[in-house]
UniProtKB/TrEMBL annotation, chains A, B:
Transmembrane segments: none annotated. It comes from Nocardiopsis gilva YIM 90087. This is LacI family transcriptional regulator. Keywords: DNA-binding, Transcription, Transcription regulation. Pfam families: LacI, Peripla_BP_3. Gene3D superfamilies: 3.40.50.2300, lambda repressor-like DNA-binding domains (1.10.260.40). Coiled coil: none annotated. CDD domains: HTH_LacI. One of its GO terms (molecular function) is DNA-binding transcription factor activity. Residues 4-58 form the HTH lacI-type domain.
Length: 340, 340
DNA sequence: CTGTTAGCGCCTTCAA
DNA sequence: TTGAAGGCGCTAACAG
């Protein structure tokens, strides 16, 4: 049997197809009585809208895109993205929108994909993640006229509306915890220097620990590519310095674990000799010994909010930024007072 | 400026829109000369097909779906899925297809989503992962008449075509390695009993190590939910038994890491007292001490093949199963001869 | 308040 | 080989 169409419903209910369309979309133009009759007919036939037809007519794909330019390896090892996606989907599903997800090589490929998606009208807009310094994406999206929301920070270019977590205050919270314990020399093993959130964290650490002001010495930031290998290398160089830090803050969990191994190999105990903090709570942080003190963000809610902002934008609402509360610091076993 | 349409190209090239359609789709009906002229015009205008219009007309969405019923937490911690997706996308992109990705609560929700996707004609078919015992999905998909490929095993119901890796022979390979080292008592910390690939592994281990036949004693399999917590619990119970195993095979990396911690806490050295093998190579397996001996699969190629089979199915090719080669065993530091 | 009508952009018959 | 015409299923203008 053929899939029922609006024309079928119209025939069954004895009205025009336009009336059916109105009734189905809950808009004025039909009396309550006929609306009920139409809905009953649609229900009896098991009608479902054909997205292609709706998209063609309404000039709206009913889908949004998410392209991610990170190596699959890095992505898979972090729970952040999956939870982000989970949150995005919860929000999208509620409004009958689908998510097109795509892994890309780099930002250029990402822009190329946006161009393609937009030209084909595959999506109505996109969620942009991992904002960078000198990020070409906002300008490219504006040039395309493609609706977008930046998830992960305010747009420095002021083009795209953003949704973000306050990294600066999160870092301040970590520093406060370490200072309470008595730490003076705090180091930071960060992600690539091109990523905005990483830059913000470094800047915040430098601000919070500037010499004199707070009783801590100026910190050292070592940048990495987020991998365990570079996390280990960075830790090795930090710990072998003359004035080695008594606490190290890592920009993700994998590097924190790798760093902890390096410390142990170097004959240092965690947290007795060196304290460790990971930025991102995950299973990984709880299976290690000692368990890791981490910063915990609600990635799911973050994703839902970003998706919600994008849908609002598509509905014609004015662009607006949303800043989240400062994430929680989960204190576990990897932080303790520094050695005397 | 308006997005160019076929009518625009036709006007520019001075031909009919039908001629343009023929030229663009590389089918007979236009002379080579006009075809070139048309292609040049399309190029000059930067024309791209509108997917909604094409989908409506061709009755084909140009998209396939992937719904995953695993907790986000479990997903995110394993690199397998991201690489799988990466492979799927590479194959789909090549043929101008998009991927709709969706996380669902359970198999029932998954079937509900298939029903919805199919009713809306959102996708042309789906990739089904994590086949289970008494899996309701193949029958549900057949009832819907929805094209699908099962990624992760042959369909026991014989309904869906499948793409899979030979778990039985992979397990045999692990057992061979352990036997060479001299292990006699091998235990298995598996995933949930409902998952087919987990069942296959357990069965293979039991087969390979049945008493007498191979010089090993009958193995013990403990099922878990894949989490680190249950992996730890299972390890604790295995190691505290009177006849404790000298080697343990884990169904993923997280549990192997958790198990290693438990062994250490129990005063056992890895691999001196107990050897450990993880099923899945990931960063996690290389940052631990000792590094983990793992089974390595090519998830990306696996995904690409599955996607390729689905597209072939959509093109009307007959369903066909594809079995992969046995995955490689990467021997690292966590396996050694058992204690004397 | 209702129903008719004409597209949305593409593909594909049919005649010419 | 080409052009005209119609339909895919839905929505949004119109008139009635």
């Amino acid at each position: 049997m053929r899939r029922p169409t609006i024309a079928d419903i119209a025939r069954r209910a004895g009205v025009s197809s336009a009336a059916v369309s109105f009734a189905l979309n809950g808009r004025p133009g039909v009396s309550e009585h006929t609306r009920q009759r139409i809905l009953a007919a649609a229900d009896a036939l098991g009608w479902q809208p054909n997205t292609a037809a709706r998209a063609l007519s309404a000039k709206r794909a009913g889908a949004v895109g998410l392209a991610v330019a990170r190596p699959a390896r890095t992505l898979g090892v972090e729970p952040f993205f999956m939870q982000l996606i989970s949150g995005i989907q919860a929000e999208l599903s509620e409004r009958a929108n689908a998510l097109l997800f795509h892994l890309v090589e780099d930002v250029d490929a990402e822009i190329g994909l946006y161009r393609k998606w937009w030209a084909e009208r595959r999506v109505d807009g996109v969620l942009v993640v991992d904002p960078r310094t000198a990020d070409p994406r906002p300008a490219a999206l504006r040039a395309l006229g493609m609706p977008a929301v930046l998830a992960g920070g305010p747009d420095p270019a002021g083009i795209l509306p953003g949704v973000w977590i306050d990294d600066a205050r999160a870092m301040a919270r970590i520093v406060a915890h370490l200072r309470e314990l008595g730490h003076v020399r705090v180091a930071h093993v960060s992600g690539p220097s091109g990523l905005l959130h990483t830059e913000r964290r470094s800047a915040a650490l430098h601000e919070a620990t500037r010499p004199g002001a707070t009783g801590t010495t100026g910190p050292t930031t070592v940048t990495t590519d987020f991998s365990d290998t570079e996390g280990a290398r960075a830790t090795r160089s930090l710990l072998s310095a003359a004035d080695r830090p008594t606490a190290i803050v890592y920009d993700n969990d994998v590097m924190a674990v790798a760093g902890m191994s390096v410390a142990r190999q170097a004959g240092l105990a965690v947290p007795a000799d060196v304290s460790i903090v990971a930025w991102e709570d995950s299973t990984l942080c709880r299976v290690t010994h000692p368990t890791l003190t981490t910063l915990s963000r609600d990635a799911s809610r973050f994703g839902a909010t970003a998706a919600g902002r994008l849908l609002a934008l598509l509905d014609g609402e004015p662009p607006a930024d949303v800043e989240f509360d400062v994430p929680e610091l989960i204190v576990r076993e990897s932080t303790a007072p520094p050695p005397a």
